[in-house]
Please model this.
Amino acid sequence: MKRGVLIVTLFVVLLIVAACGGGSDESKEKATSVPVATEGDATPAAVEEEPTLSEDQLKDIENLDSYRAITTWSSKGKDAEGKALENSTEITIEYTKEPPAQHMAMATSSTNADQTEDVQAFDIYQIGKDMYMSSGEDGTWMRVQQDESPIDPSFSGLSGGQFFTNLEDLKRVRPDQNINGIDSRHYTYDERVLGMLFGSATGDVKAEGDVWIAKDGGYVTKYVVTIEVKNGSGDILAPTMTEGSSSLAWELQEVNSKDLKIELPKEAVAGATLAGFDEAFPTPEGSSVQASSGDFAMIQTDLTAEEVAKFYEDTLSKLGWTKDESSSSAFGGMTSLSFAKDGVQLSVMISADEDSGKTQIMASAQKP
Model:
């Protein structure tokens, strides 16, 4: 299975898991904690009542003002034919509520049964309505505009709250710990707490790990887990592995930090700008960019084809582009405009989009 396909599958399944409910609160063991008295204390510290944990609360980080979440995953083992498999992934997600911005960087490396290594990298920035994406392979960037970001703040890159279930099986460990500035309660667990993650696993699958949960807010601040697979399937994390081990770690940083700022790198803006333009390709007011790169741009607008044609004739003329009348035409509801500047050939195709009822604009630029 292609590693990219596996990652997409993993994201989709965990997002489905996020919508599922958990176990009964009635079965949760009520424990108490007595903090260790420091030297010189005359009396023991007050008893702390063990909190009731909620699966919804564990993943509730969407109310935070900012954070950075780092996920690392690795797997090593054998497939059904005894061939070696090795995979690793690192995902970093950054989020700020104001100004609304998100950034996800993902790097994957995999060695399949044929011992062929596949390395991939992805970058996504969402600044307001503008989203910039890069596969990282050739430095190509693409820009789109949309109201909804593909990066779900509550998901945050495999947040433990997405698949922790059977919370009554968590075992409290003391003393409490500070995780990147957040006072957190420490628990250990095994595969019973990961029931949603291993719902379709087969064979002998065992897991053990640690999780830290914020005292104030109840969301996961960190977790680590090691998974051992024998004579079966690793399910979501390693579906083709019949024997081996996987490790997964997730950590929350920069929570509500005013120093965390998400800014577009210069190469992203330059890479998503149509050739021949120093700034973004001009668009009519009220239009939306469906896709834009150094080679082409696709735009939708409520203006008519005639209004769009006039907009580009006027705007591009002011920017120093010369219209090629012999290569421009209008026929059958479609308008084609050609322009040139500094050797760059620009084509603008304008047509009605019957599905949306809007006017579709497709521009392409060819360097000399």
About this structure: The longest strand covers residues 220-233.
